[in-house]
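Risk register update: the risk that structure generation would not scale has been downgraded. Supporting records follow, first protein first.
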Amino acid sequence: MNNPSPEIDRHPLNTVVLAYFHYRYEAELAQGYLDESGVPTVLLIDDAGGMDVGLSFVNPARLLVGLEYVERSRLILEEAGVIDQDALEM
């Protein structure tokens, strides 16, 4: 097992939280920019389907991307003005 299969790097669980958002629309906007650029994403939002916006201040929306897309995703969202350093750290 000295040479792991390259498929391990493409496993769907090899993801990281790219950014945090207090508002659903910000997270969805960021996801849209990445989707348009061909970057697969996952949003984790716990706000009761938009019915309890206050939940997102306790548990912000998280935008996940695969490890191989982290740098590209940051550049895309920074250039679009969607994220700043505060969105990247929580």
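Supporting record for the second protein:
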Amino acid sequence: MRSKVGGVPASYRWAVASRVLAAVLGGYVLAALSSVCVAWLLPMARGEAVVSAMMLSFLVYLVAVLWCFACRTAGRAWLGLAMPALVLAAASGVLHWLYQP
């Protein structure tokens, strides 16, 4: 039995692979950074804040994955994840510096 491989161009396959990588890796980074920032900012006990932030990070990850596949191009998907990740990384660094005992 022969398989048909020739129907889809290679550029389309690379674009889909790039979106999958953006969704998996970029979504994870964005969710982790948002979890760190929210855990620092929640006005409750540290353990409860961490658990609440981790639960919220699942929603952030979901939205990031949806964003990657809703964008018009793979580059826009990467950019849409990189910009908030940079902002959250800077915010988490500042928060760590402010609240460090």
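Residues 10-41 form the longest helix (32 residues). On this basis the risk owner (M.S.) recommends closing the item.
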